[in-house]
Amino acid sequence: MTAAAFRVDPQGSLTDVTGIAVGHYQRTGGGWRTGTTAVIARSGATAGVDVRGAGPGTRETDLLRPENLVQQVHGICLTGGSAYGLAAADGMMHWLESRSIGFPVGPLAHQIVPIVPAAVIFDLGRGGDYTHRPDIEFGRRAATRARTSAEANGSVGAGTGAVAGGLQGGVGSASTTLSNGIVVSALAVVNAAGSLVNPASGMPWESSAHQLRRPTTDERSALAAATSSPSLPATGVLNTTIGVVATTAQLSKAECTKVAGVAHDGMARAIRPVHSMFDGDTVFALATGIHVLSESQASGLRAEGSRAALLNLILDAAAQCFAAACTQAIVSARSLGGPLAYRDLCSSAFAPTPRRSAT
After folding, report:
1. Residue 106 belongs to some domain of the structure
2. Rounded-to-integer distance, Cα 1 and Cα 347, Å
3. Cβ atoms < 10 Å from Cβ of 356
4. Which end of the chain is more exposed for a tag (fewer CB within 10 A), N or C?
């Protein structure tokens, strides 16, 4: 098994990892354009986090440090609303508490504290009313909608009010299955100060997993005009790309932290520039522990130490999946009355590749 032993599926889902469910809730119109995405791990999942942006809005991230007490989380809240939106995590906590899911703090079943770390994007006022932002009800509704089937991508959930490089942002996902059966998947909420599109070609910076065609000359001109408009918000408006990488592997908190850190490499491939003073880029990693990393699984890997070799392959997959998920967010997005979407401006990029004539 080598680093080339997997192929990233940009149509994949975070829920391809058994034990993970995802739900979106959003509001649009009447001054609203924001939402929340709930990632639920009913049976718990080992977790880590890595924060690289200079303007983060987070909750419970210190708890995920490897030396700290709690070993598993029960959900991750990704939401709009800047720091106000962290209230959505309360709704997820109440939903989990009502199902007796949480960290036990007493002898009785109801004496629990659900562990729900959270991260936010800045989308205040993008629907027209600065005071319309996610609250406790958004988190509860997103959790209620969580399913183990493939989640929707595009301008939904936490990506509803997202803007990325002057285009409509959104939610994207991707996944892969390694040759030993371990699944790695990613979900990204892209609201970046940087751009996901190469202005010279009109193609996403990271499109290796996507079947896209080069936009026409007219489309590239329209794209350039749309993303350099003086009516766009100033760079000083906060942004942020946040997300989750999940795997079926059995990992420690320290290993999950490493997975989250390397997933940022995938973000850097897809978004340029990244991790700016105006971003709060945060990635969580979850491990559901279905597959134990064993000596036999590592046979054929040319690296010192079987577990390290397998972990390295998971790291490679995490970076590639997160990069593909970021691109999937921008190509899946549709305009909701704010900035135009990449799909609006470069429709020919999605045209089927012509078949070569038979000779």
Report:
1. yes
2. 38
3. 6
4. C
DSSP structural state of residue 339: S
Q: In this structure, are residues 266 and 321 in contact, taking their beta carbons and an 8 Å threshold?
A: yes
pLDDT at 229: 55
The tokens for 71 are: 């070993």
- Could you list the residue range(s) of the whole structural domain that residue 76 is in? 14-343
State how far the Cα of 55 lies from the Cα of 238, in Å rounded to an integer.
7
CATH of the domain at 314: 3.60.70.12
Kindly state whether residue 7 falls inside one of the protein's structural domains: no
DSSP structure class, residue 295: T
Q: How far apart are CA 131 and CA 162, in angstroms?
A: 16
Residue pLDDT, tens place only, 235-256: 445 789 999 999 999 999 999 9
Q: What is the pLDDT of residue 234?
A: 46
Residue 8 lies in a domain: no
Give percent helix, percent strand, percent coil of the chain, each to the nearest 5: 30, 25, 45
Mean pLDDT of 326-348: 96
Tell me the whole-structure pTM to 2 decimals: 0.93
pLDDT tens track for 151-174: 999 999 999 999 999 999 999 999
**Which alpha helices (DSSP H) does 164-294 contain, by range?**
217-227, 253-270
Count the residues in the chain: 359
Residue 120 lies in a domain: yes
d(CA 98, CA 357): 61
Angstrom CA distances, 123 to 4, 82, 103, 134, 168, stand at 38, 7, 32, 10, 12
Number of domains in the chain: 1
